[in-house]
Amino acid sequence: MLENIKVFFKNLSGENFTDLFFEGLWNTVKIAILGLIIGIVIGTVIGIIKVAPKYKLGMRILDKISTVYVAIFRGTPMVAQLLIAYYLLLPLLGVKGVEAVNVGVAVFGMNSGAYVSEIMRGGINSVDPGQTEAGRALGLSYPTTMLKIVVPQAIKNIIPTLGNEFITLIKDTAVLSFISIVDINVAVKQIAQPGYVYSAGYLFMAVVYIVLVLVITGLVKLTEHFLNKSDRKYGTTKSAKKS
Amino acid sequence: MAEEIIRVEHLYKRFGDNEVLRDISTSIYEREKVVILGLSGSGKSTLLRCLNCMEDPSGGAIYFDGENLADFKVDINRHRQKIGMVFQQFNLFNNKTVIQNITLAPVHIGVKGLRRAQRINFFRKIGNMFRRLFKKEEKALVTIEKTKADIVKEAKEKAHELLRRIGLEDKANVYPSTLSGGQKQRIAIVRALAMNPKVMLFDEPTSALDPEMVGEVLDLIKQLADEGMTMVIVTHEMGFAREVATRVLFMADGNIAEEGSPEEVFDHPKNPKTVQFLKAVL
What we know:
- The structure holds 2 protein chains of 2 kinds.
- Helices cover 80% and strands 0% of the residues of chain A.
- By secondary structure, chain A is mainly α.
- In chain B, the strands form 2 sheets. A 6-stranded mixed beta sheet of chain B has the order 6-7-8-3-9-10, sandwiched between helices. In chain B, strands 2-1-4-5 form a 4-stranded antiparallel beta sheet, covered by helices on one side.
């Protein structure tokens, strides 16, 4: 085993393979981060639609559309979505020259949007309805009240769950190899090929994922700390110290 | 006769099968201080919340500024800007500092108006090019007096002035979680005032406060009353009601059971329900 690991690292230190590894790492991180950002945007919009009052016909139609969207993206495996998007939808629409990585970002974003929408709905429901009332009573419109007052507070409440979603996305990037994107998974397999040191390669891959996840956990903690500045327990703000 | 600010006509409100308000008609005139009394469940909070359509009426009409607020076609947000509301639970925005709480709505609405004017001007300019081409009279542009910076600056100045008035200027940049209940409620009142409302609605403003903080909030409301602000107050503070009110509405079972000056209602109640209520609370 030790021998295998030695061979693997020797392979890895070769210039081509080092580049390949970092390409894989970069693709994994890039697709996960962009996917999460798109997911949060889509999820917020759907989450707001879901909790909004449905007096108007337009609102009811949007609600139905988002229900179908969530059902489709949560009900099918990510691999199927990637394959359908890349090998079926793109040729069908006649779009050419789209990089596989961009397809990956789009599918990850839309998939994650479906999950985040439910997280966001829970987050919005966890905010005191009085906050919405106060905003509406001041004459702010429903969307403004949501975006300026309720959603920021909701996001604060759901940061830990969003961290979960991010970690899931990072690990899900392993399916990107289906549409020939070089992610960590693909890179490591290629690096391990000379000398057939796959066992060492997979061990290394696991370590890389753990490190990534630990970094994300740290980032989530930091974000939480930053967003909690309006809570009493994180002390008074600068100006309060001044006075 | 003073100007009529809000007119309620045959107002009904149902929550499912439960009829909370039954055929209420009344008017609120300028500079009037109307206090609504009643047992819990008599519909007094619901009536107040119907006045700015926080609860949509099930039937009837509420006229404000010549428009029926109960009509879904009316732009309710524009009217709510002129109806200040203060809640039992303060409802300060937790994610905003005190000063942001006060300036948020004026700035947002000011900027929205500015954008709208800019948009209209943009299209008028294009229209004018054609009108010039066809030698027709050009349409005048909307005059834009204030830039965004002006709006922000004005709102901030006003907020500081209001904070100074209630003696909380040093709290301008703290978050609501660090304030006491009385401070929160006074800031909530000031936040509503920052919109220059025509009428203020108070929904049990002191019911969630510790007893030692009730005074400071009531004092502020009294000050506003003395300055001539029109207000509608739902409260359980009988002494305060008697002192401030120009008219008292006593509600029972979704109706206005008795209505009159504080002297009439408190000292010479006619309706047996009012008598019973006053006996219980005084």
